[in-house]
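INTERNAL AUDIT FORM
Audit reference: QA-55
Scope: verify that the stored structure record matches its stored sequence.
Auditor: D.O.
Record contents follow.
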Amino acid sequence: MVINHIVFIAGYIFYLFVYHKTGQEFIYPVYLAPEVIYSLLAGASFAVSKITKEPFLKIFKNFSISLLPLAFLFLTPVLLKLNIPEPHNFLQRKLELILGASYVLFLTALAGVFIKKVFTGRVFDREHIQEAGLPFIIVGFFFVLYFGLSLWFNYANEPTGDEPAYLLRAHSIVKDKDLDLKNNFDNKDYRIFYSKELAPQTGDIRKDGKIYSYHPFFLSFIMAPFYGTAGRLGVTALMNFTAAALIAMIFIMASAVFADSRTALHAALISGLTMPVLEFINISATDIVNPALLILAYICLRYPLKRYNTSIFYACCAILIWIHLRNLPLVASLALIYAWDNRRDAKKVAMLAVFLLLAAGILAALNYLNYGVIFSSYSSGNQGSIMQNFKPHNLKGTMVMFMDRQTGLIPYAPIYILSFAGIFFLYRENRRVFADMAVLVLPYFIMITSWHDWGSGSSSPRYFMPFIFVFSMLLAAVMRSIRSRTAKIVFTVLSWWSFAIAAVVACVPWFRWDKQPAENWIVAIINRFTGFNPAVILPSYRMEGQAPFYLTAAWLVIIAGLTFYYIVQAGKNPEKRKA
């Protein structure tokens, strides 16, 4: 419809006029906004026209409704008068947020129209997008969505945490053909992707006048070709594709486990459109790569589809070891499952053991040759003191991972509160997969809840990312158990609540990182504008005195109550499954 385009163009011109009147210098996203928006609109329309075999112009007209949320730009004068929390309460940041939020609303609408057109109704059942083609459609959909979001994320958030270390080493690999970062620090090569001063990290290794990052080097090698092609944006595209592939593999695995493509698709969409996955789609670190490798290894192990499954499984195990030593419990769990499956074939078990020892040996040898140590430290630079960072506080760590208002899974994605009920339903539906998931998760979970640092800085638990697909399986099991209208409504409300939180974080990417000390930006904003402080009902286990016993007890009662309710309702009218 022409009116949709008029709304966008008029809103954009109005935004430009107000922007100019403020006297602020125009930022490059302002110039690129129309080109990016229409490229995404045309690209999505073209893809759907190929999938549904409908004319491109017809789809383009239908998808043009996605432009209507850009009417948000007309509110620019009003929004500029609002006071937002420091350090963001200045004109330039407000103008950035208005444009960014409008852009995210457009992407949200475009994704919604795409999902409705392709993944629902009769189109889903058409032969040319049946199960064989759906994974590719999922990859394409999420790659475009994640790349579109990452254009905003990359502008709003410079590389943070360990990202600069991985990027600078990729730069050194491409430009210098070595791992020594001394000259890169001296020449300030990091200014290509980082505007502030960057110094070597505390744990970095200094040897013979050279500086080596203490982080594992293999990920930087993977990133190097993409960095050499398009800098940080090239690495972002790699992470976007990896995240999209992760969601497609969640669909593949759930389809295999439950023999139910619709449930598998719903579970994949929930995981792909909520936190914590959405937080890490553009992060140049291990957070997205680890779960993609782990689920691929498991699919090859349990649901062989091609002749090269064993080779891919071996490769995934080796890369998991080379990317980060934190993955060792996960690789050990995969090896245990493989050994159990092949317990009558000692040759296969021995071959895997030798291969894993060889992979670890290669890593140790390369570390020694380059750094002078067998395994570089992952304990904030305290060489030889890794074990000192493990503490017997697993119960508190569990609370931090699930319920803490800044790093907890449930506050940022309430739908996962039903994953506890999913444990029961997955056990009932597929005990073999349940046992596999337990073997995969428990050793790693014990390790991360014992660690001295629970991932400060991020919103929602980054250490849950390696097995986020397990939570997807639990949600799929819950969906298949729903029998009552009330249970379906609760599931739907929690899902849309999770989508809404993810949309807020996408609109304001600064919310992806904590409001110091260890606080939640969304909580602070709600408190400022409504006078109600959600902190009174959301505990903080990382800040002393912020998690009173009665509040913890209340949340445990809620979790137990919902779990019990879903289990009980599943026993009623089993022949009338609602979802």
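Auditor finding: record pair retrieved intact. The beta strands are 205-207, 210-212.
Action required: none
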